[in-house]
């Protein structure tokens, strides 16, 4: 039986912890700031373009209001996951402290350069996976659920790996290739979190829940093997 449902329930149960709340506030604030900066830049660029072609600059505001929410809808998973990478150690250490205190003593937190590198790798993979999926989704655009199914499948694989690697990198003893969570469980976790990211307001907490659940999956198996 998959351990994913139990891991997600435990993760949701820890959302009220102070450490997790602090990470939630920071990651949501940074994510919103990224989209706000992108929206401002888009408006400034469109306004400049409108002036170059002697158009009414008010249309730049209208276009920005339409395009920014669409951009958030399509790129939220990528941005939120990249932002969470910078705070991943805080989430993982909170789960360790509450549920795996013995293993917390042997954890090796990532230094800032390591967090930046992990975030960059995750961002590259997210962009690469989604760009590769784009032509397939475009072919299926006239079907009812084809594009959504393609992106859900791609992001299930992507998120499952990223959310479990956040914990595994603290316990891998320098070898990140040996993630102990079976592929099927990683994909199931990724699919659940990808689905949560489609729900307004829940999407802000989905990466945190996924990171905490991924920690349970990793440490549950790592502890059993120790």
TrEMBL record:
<dbReference type="InterPro" id="IPR059112">
    <property type="entry name" value="CysZ/EI24"/>
</dbReference>
<dbReference type="Pfam" id="PF07264">
    <property type="entry name" value="EI24"/>
</dbReference>
<keyword id="KW-0812">Transmembrane</keyword>
<feature type="transmembrane region" description="Helical">
    <location>
        <begin position="28"/>
        <end position="50"/>
    </location>
</feature>
<feature type="transmembrane region" description="Helical">
    <location>
        <begin position="62"/>
        <end position="88"/>
    </location>
</feature>
<feature type="transmembrane region" description="Helical">
    <location>
        <begin position="187"/>
        <end position="219"/>
    </location>
</feature>
<keyword id="KW-0472">Membrane</keyword>
<keyword id="KW-1133">Transmembrane helix</keyword>
<protein>
    <recommendedName>
        <fullName>Cysteine biosynthesis protein</fullName>
    </recommendedName>
</protein>
<feature type="transmembrane region" description="Helical">
    <location>
        <begin position="131"/>
        <end position="158"/>
    </location>
</feature>
């Amino acid at each position: 039986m998959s351990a994913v449902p139990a891991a997600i329930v435990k993760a949701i149960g820890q959302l009220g912890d102070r450490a997790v709340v602090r990470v939630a506030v920071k990651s949501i604030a940074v994510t919103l700031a990224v989209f706000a900066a992108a929206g401002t830049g888009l408006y400034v660029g469109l306004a400049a373009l409108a002036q170059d072609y002697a158009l009414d600059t008010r249309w730049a505001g209208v276009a920005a209001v339409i395009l920014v929410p669409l951009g958030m809808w399509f790129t939220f998973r990528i941005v939120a996951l990249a932002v969470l990478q910078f705070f991943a150690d805080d989430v993982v250490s909170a789960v360790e402290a509450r549920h795996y205190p013995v293993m917390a003593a042997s954890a090796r937190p990532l230094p800032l350069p390591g967090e930046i590198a992990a975030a960059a790798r995750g961002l590259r993979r997210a962009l690469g996976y989604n760009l590769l999926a784009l032509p397939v989704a475009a072919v299926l655009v006239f079907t009812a659920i084809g594009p959504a199914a393609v992106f859900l499948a791609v992001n299930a694989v992507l998120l499952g790996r990223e959310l479990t690697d956040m914990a595994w990198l603290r316990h891998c003893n320098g070898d990140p290739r040996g993630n102990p969570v079976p592929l099927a469980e990683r994909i199931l976790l990724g699919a659940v979190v990808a689905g949560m990211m489609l729900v307004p307001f829940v999407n802000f907490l989905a990466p945190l829940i996924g990171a905490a659940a991924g920690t349970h999956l990793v440490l549950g198996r790592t502890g059993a093997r120790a």
